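User: Predict Bacitracin resistance protein's structure from this.
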Amino acid sequence: MTAVEESPTMRRNPTWMVVAIAGAFGLLYAYIVWNAVGLLVSQATGPLGINVAGWALLLSAAVFPLLAFGVAFAVGYRRRAGQFALVLLTGLGLSAVFWFNVLAYAATKGAELLG
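Assistant:
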């Protein structure tokens, strides 16, 4: 046998545990989305407005954490609780790095891109 097979005695995480872990991390992902939408609204209603590249950048900042959460959940929900939390934490870290990159770009190139 070269492939590793699951034994029938292996137990999965209870549903409540998966929901609790995903819910806790989901709130953190939602915070990033909330900030991205807030920046998008404030820039769109500001005196300078947003051009097409600004819309693309700020919409991607709002969508990326949702995609990262979906991928991390799909990859990790069948794993043990600690591994599942680490996979979600990795996705959260990627989302945070992307958000900080958007903020840095908006701070340095904001006059050309967003205005």
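The radius of gyration is 19 Å.
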